[in-house]
Amino acid sequence: MPFIRGDEAVVHEIHGGRFVSYVRPDTGSRDLAAWRLEIPAAMVGPTHTISEEETFYVLSGRLLLTIDGESAELGAGDAAVAPAGSALAVANQTDQPAHAWVTTRVGLTAELADGTTITPPWAH
């Protein structure tokens, strides 16, 4: 099943963000997971350590990404790579929503500062 229609996307909401999952094992992918990340205005996500590399491509708006303590504000057309094992935080400091396309390996987990491990369903 190489084609995934928009109505097959599954929406997950966590920490104020919206994850619209398209590419995942139950849509035919063995190795990669990809989703549209929707970050509302003035949202700051928690810092978390990722188990797998993640790539970000900003579709609209502006996002502040912090990867291992280094921060950059990215706009539409900009991209970033967060290496496996890095501490990652995503924020939107503007008054407009922002959207990005995110890709990682299937099986990604994230550990929050308090030691809680998240197994995101959009990456499994």
pLDDT < 50 stretches: none
**H-E string:** EEEEEEEEEEEEE
Q: Helix amount, in percent? A: under 10%
Largest beta-sheet characterization: 7 strands, antiparallel
Total DSSP E strands = 13
Oligomeric state as shown? single chain
Strand share of the residues?
A: over 45%
How many helices does DSSP assign?
0
The overall pLDDT, averaged over residues, is 96
Decide which structural class fits the backbone.
mainly beta
Question: Kindly, what is the distance between the CA atoms of the first and last residues, rounded to a whole number of angstroms?
Answer: 17 Å
Question: Radius of gyration from the CA trace?
Answer: 14 Å
Shape: globular
Provide structural commentary.
The protein is an all-beta fold and 124 residues long. It has no helices and 13 strands. A hairpin with a 4-residue loop joins strand 12 (110-112) and strand 13 (117-118). It is globular and about 40 Å long. The chain starts with 9 loop residues before the first strand and ends in a 6-residue tail after the last strand.
